[in-house]
Design goal:
With 492 residues, the chain is an alpha/beta fold. The protein folds into two domains: 2-138 and 337-491, FAD/NAD(P)-binding domain, CATH 3.50.50.60; 147-203 and 263-332, FAD/NAD(P)-binding domain. 34% of the residues lie in helices and 18% in strands. It contains 15 helices and 22 strands. The protein has helices spanning 13-24, 42-45, 77-90, 178-189, 214-222, 224-246, 249-266, 270-275, 293-298, 355-358, 392-413, 421-435, 439-442, 465-473, 485-491, and strands spanning 2-9, 30-33, 97-98, 103-109, 114-119, 122-131, 154-156, 170-174, 193-197, 204-205, 288-289, 302-305, 309-313, 316-319, 324-326, 329-332, 347-348, 377-379, 415-416, 450-451, 456-457, 483-484. Strands 1, 2, 3, 4, 5, 6, 17 and 18 form an eight-stranded mixed beta sheet that branches. The protein has a five-stranded parallel beta sheet with strand order 7-16-8-9-12. It has a three-stranded antiparallel beta sheet with strand order 13-14-15, with no helix packed on it. The chain is globular and about 70 Å long. This is NAD(P)/FAD-dependent oxidoreductase. InterPro entries: FAD-bind_Monooxygenase_sf, FAD/NAD-bd_sf.
């Protein structure tokens, strides 16, 4: 058995962000439980051709660890994985890492006022539990009749099979979201013939993204004030994008016009252009960035099927529109289990209630971080903590700071942090009011931000990063009802 003050599950950006916040607040008694063989989370697991971030690299990193050596405006997946490994090394968390260790269950022990976390390497007992498991970790495999009958290589884009030969083979890709937009042009470049099944087209805007020269990277290293100024500018640009994503009429119209112009400039065939034009409001689904997707789809290397994949019979793929196609390799770029987080079934709070049960009508929280009925528990990248306009790392840093402040409050009051259910309800109502008129709710699309069971926005924060920072700053501890330490001792 391992006994610590804080157990952190996950060692991606969120887990490392919490570890950094704990250390800066003077806490050293913690472990990071990581199911993978290294830190990195999303950027360890996703290795498909063309994998890269769609947030500017100098904004997609920890404020405490600026990186002057990013290769370009947008970092590649391997670069981001290296960055996180470097952060872990510089933070000296190696002796606290429990790699290749999976959380099998976690239960709140009321009598001892601790979390008991089961792993294949033994039990971990902690005063507080931080779930930094990531929101896009478990591949979503669609329920397609006959899928198991496909005879060739079949895998999800986030579980890429690098042993599969692609050149000269017909590769079917299911989905046209963020991964597919990066992946399809690379498949075409590698010599594959691509059949692309598109259920719903995406709004796509120009990406840009020049490479930094050696001189620029040297200047960033020698003049950190320039790097800080660049980050501040990128932050401001990101905040300004919120208007177009959230439904401001003028901003959305301008952004939509840019997207339409981008499509017209890159796709000359009117029929193909029509098939690639969304019929829903700009911002309703995730807005994608690419300068290479449209040219690839317009080339002879890619056949666009403007329909979902409906059935599989061996190597014959039948679209929902009735058309049939053949493939040697089948790639599912179908996203992740997002609104219903897989870890929620494993975590039991008061009276043995699971997070999944508490979230049966969609995720709820206070401050997008703490949950009623789950004492001394913190969730990062969970309820209403994602962004559609800027860097998720900014949200992680705010949540991690809130975790450290809340634990300091626990030290002062000497008890258990229990979220007042009324505080959670009030916060949930705030989110609902802020989201009610946005494209995410009213835009006429099906997106992964909204929980189908309740129709509530449960993934996105419906505001700017500045607004989230201000909201957490207003959290004065009244969201908790602390149980005195003597009560805990008496119960044990």
């Amino acid at each position: 058995m391992t006994r610590v003050e804080v157990a952190i599950v996950g060692a991606g950006f969120a887990g490392l962000g919490v570890a950094m916040a704990l250390r800066r607040s003077g806490r050293e008694s913690f472990v990071l439980i990581e199911r993978g063989a290294s830190v990195g989370g999303t950027w360890r697991d996703n290795t498909y051709p063309g994998i890269a971030c769609d947030v500017p690299s100098h904004l997609y990193g920890f404020a405490a660890y600026p990186n002057p050596d990013w290769s370009g405006v947008y970092a590649t997946g391997p670069e981001l994985h290296r960055y996180l490994r470097d952060v872990a090394e510089r933070e000296q968390v190696g002796d606290r890492l429990r790699l290749s260790t999976t959380m099998r269950d976690a239960m709140w022990d009321e009598g001892a006022a601790v979390w008991r976390i089961g792993t294949e390497r033994g039990e971990i007992v902690a005063d507080a539990l931080v779930l930094a498991c990531g929101r896009l970790t478990e591949p979503l495999i669609p329920d397609i009749p006959g899928l198991e009958s496909f005879p060739g290589p079949l895998f999800h884009s986030s579980r890429w099979d690098h042993t599969t030969e692609l050149e000269g083979r017909r590769v079917a890709v299911v989905g046209t979201g963020a991964s597919a937009v990066q992946l399809v042009p690379e498949l075409a470049r590698l010599g594959a013939g691509v059949t692309l099944f598109q259920r719903t087209p995406a709004w796509i805007v120009p990406r840009g993204g020049a490479l930094y020269s050696d001189d620029e990277r040297a200047r960033f290293a020698d003049h950190p004030e320039e790097l800080a100024a660049l980050r501040a500018r990128l932050y401001s640009e990101g905040e300004s994008r919120f208007a177009s994503r959230s439904g401001d009429a003028a901003a959305a119209a301008a952004a939509r016009a840019d997207a339409v112009a981008h499509l017209r400039a890159q796709v000359t065939d009117p029929a193909l252009r029509a098939a690639l034009t969304p019929d829903y409001a700009f911002g309703c689904k995730r807005v994608l960035l690419s300068d290479t997707f449209y040219p690839a789809v317009a080339s002879d290397a890619v056949e666009l099927v403007p329909s979902a994949l409906g059935a599989v019979d061996g190597e014959v793929l039948t679209a929902a529109d009735g058309s049939t196609h053949r493939a040697d390799v089948l790639v599912l770029a179908t996203g992740f289990a997002s609104t219903q987080q897989p870890y929620a079934d494993l975590v039991r709070g008061d009276d043995g209630v699971t997070l999944a049960e508490h979230w049966s009508q969609g995720m709820t929280s206070f401050g997008s971080t703490v949950v009623a009925g789950f004492p001394n528990l913190f969730v990062l990248n969970g309820p209403n903590a994602s962004l559609g306009h800027s860097s998720s790392v900014l949200m992680i840093e705010e949540q991690a700071a809130y975790v450290a402040r809340s634990l300091a409050l626990r030290d002062r009051v000497g008890g258990v942090l229990r979220v007042d259910p009324d505080a959670e309800d009030t916060y949930t109502e705030e989110i609902a009011r802020a989201a009610a008129s946005t494209p995410w709710i009213t835009g006429g699309c099906h997106n992964w931000y909204v929980d189908e069971r309740s129709g509530r926005l449960t993934l996105l924060w419906p505001g700017t990063v500045d607004a989230f920072r201000a909201r957490l700053a207003r959290a004065d501890g009244s969201e908790f009802a602390a149980v005195p330490a003597r009560t805990m001792r008496g119960a044990s």
